[in-house]
Amino acid sequence: MKKIGQFIYPWGNGHYTRMMRLDEALLKHLGEELDVHYFSKGEVYKKLLDKFPDKQKNIHEVLMPTPIDGKVGPSVTLSLLNILFPV
Predict the structure, then answer these.
(1) Closest Cα to residue 38, out of 72, 28, 26?
(2) With contact defined as beta carbons under 8 Å apart, do 41 and 54 qualify?
(3) In this structure, how many other beta carbons lie within 10 angstroms of the beta carbon of residue 10?
(4) Class of residue 25 by CB neighbours under 10 A (exposed 0-12, middle 13-18, buried 19+)
(5) CB of 9 within 8 A of CB of 39?
(6) Does 74 score more than 60 pLDDT?
(7) Structure confidence at residue 51 (pLDDT)
(8) DSSP SS3 for 57
(9) What is the pLDDT of residues 39-53, one digit of tens each?
(10) Which of 15, 47, 69, 84 is paired with 78 by a 20 to 30 Å CA distance?
């Protein structure tokens, strides 16, 4: 059984949708059982838990730098200050 890790960006549904299609294509073309592990956070993480209730041990919530939500990613204020006062 092959192991595959899929890192799904939580920037919206587009990346999630494409990765689910990739999932189907891999199963079809490889023709064998796969041990797929999914990594994401937020809404996408919840969608994965809902879509694969029997594979919850393979779904991992990770904190990743995402400049869109600003919680873990870069600070816009500090980035602008860095332009004025380079470090």
Answers:
(1) 26
(2) no
(3) 20
(4) exposed
(5) no
(6) yes
(7) 94
(8) helix
(9) 998 899 999 999 999
(10) 15
